[in-house]
Amino acid sequence: MSELDVTPNQVDDTHDEMPFRLRDMTLKFSVADLHPALKGIGIRIDDIRRELKFQSKLALHEWEKQHWMTLLLGAIAFLVGSISSEIFSGGDATISGIDGMTGAIGGFAYFQMLVSAILWVWFAIQVWNLFPIMRSHALTLLVMWNAMFLAQIMFHVENSDFPFGIVLSQLMWGTLIVLTVLFLLSFFWKAVLETRDMHVEAYHVHEDVRVMEVEMAEHSLAGWTLVFVTWLLLVIISTWSGAHYVSERIALDGDRNIFLLLHIVCGILILPVYFWVIWFPQRMLGENTRVQTKAAFAADAELSSLGDEVVEKKKSFCPECETDVNVQRNETGDIAIPCLNQGCGTMGITGMPCSGCGQVMPTRYTCPGCDINAPALDFLPDSEAW
Q: Residue 20: its pLDDT value, please?
């Protein structure tokens, strides 16, 4: 490899038209320069700050009216569902179950609940249309948000002051839900990172490894990971504070209003951060990509190749001279060879009577190229041998 300096001009700029790039971002001050002891971690912090500046600037530049209207729609849906007279009063503590939905909720509060549900469905439809390659992941994140709320409700059922006064026996269902959510979110995070890796390998491959390193840095997701973690923390705080507020129905006036305020503020902040989390991977990877882990990608490729083999009926061959032979396996797994009876030639299952002439089909086959005689199974390729 020739000794060349890696400059921005060497990096492929033709893959995606952008108004500016990560390498164009400058910082007003550097954390790494504040103190020699901060040199190592400071460089990493500066890199993340540069990524956050780039992503936020790009979002403000590219988010259109539809993005902002969808965010407003989500905020209205959240507020309509979070603020009602039933929530402030604590409801009727003597009524539970389906009766609480049909008779205990006042007319206007019930109307609010329906409006909020309709607005959330509309919000989900808008997200589905705005982020085509992130559709399933975007809806999954919304489900995870609700699952975290359910977990907090389970935590507060027997302990209205959760997390104070914890009893391990009361944490089973809530902990199970939280672990499931974290497991699924980790797969989402891994899918985005590994799709990024495959994207760089496919679109920005270069013989100079230094250019590849520049491209990988240009596609860094450290800042996006911080945004994703921020979204998760906001979800935890919002769901906990909301459940904490309603867990004590006979609380003194104003005793827990701070938790309702915290729930609303964090809930509103969740929406733009949520948009950031699902928008940036799509912007980086393009709209013709599938966001999935390398394992899922490999599994899809293998299934696709197996499907092609079934359609194409991969040819069998002689194990000795590799001459193509007419030995097949049918849909039920039986091996079929041409009938040896002169004038017949019907394909028949080995060991069974020929459907054309009635002669019992042999279980061995003779190669027409080298005259080797072997079990018919040996002429099938390994991928077809069950």
A: 75
In 3D, which of 268, 181, 282, 271 has the Cα closest to residue 224? 282
Residue of 33, 13, 10 whose CA lies nearest to 21: 13
**What does the alpha-carbon distance between residue 245 and residue 89 come to, in Å, rounded to a whole number?**
11
- Do residue 209 and residue 320 come from a single domain? no
Question: How many CB atoms sit inside 10 A of residue 278's CB?
Answer: 25
The pLDDT of residue 91: 59
Q: Are residues 244 and 347 in the same domain?
A: no
Assigned domain for 273 exists: yes
Alpha-carbon 52 to chain mean position: 22
Please identify, among 267, 298, 329, the residue that sits at the C-terminal boundary of a domain: 298
| Domain region containing 375 | 314-384
At 249 the pLDDT is 60
pLDDT tens digits for range 8-17? 334 444 345 6
Chain-centre distance for alpha carbon 318? 45
Taking the chain, what is the end-to-end CA distance rounded to the nearest angstrom?
A: 47
145 near 235, Cβ under 8 Å?
A: yes
Q: Please, what's the b/e burial string for 305-319 (b: 16 or more CB within 10 A of its CB; e: otherwise)?
A: eeeeeeeeeeebbbe
In this prediction the pTM is 0.71
Within the chain, which residues score under 50 in pLDDT? 1-15, 251-252, 308-313, 383-386
CA angle 114, 273, 256 (to 5 degrees): 60
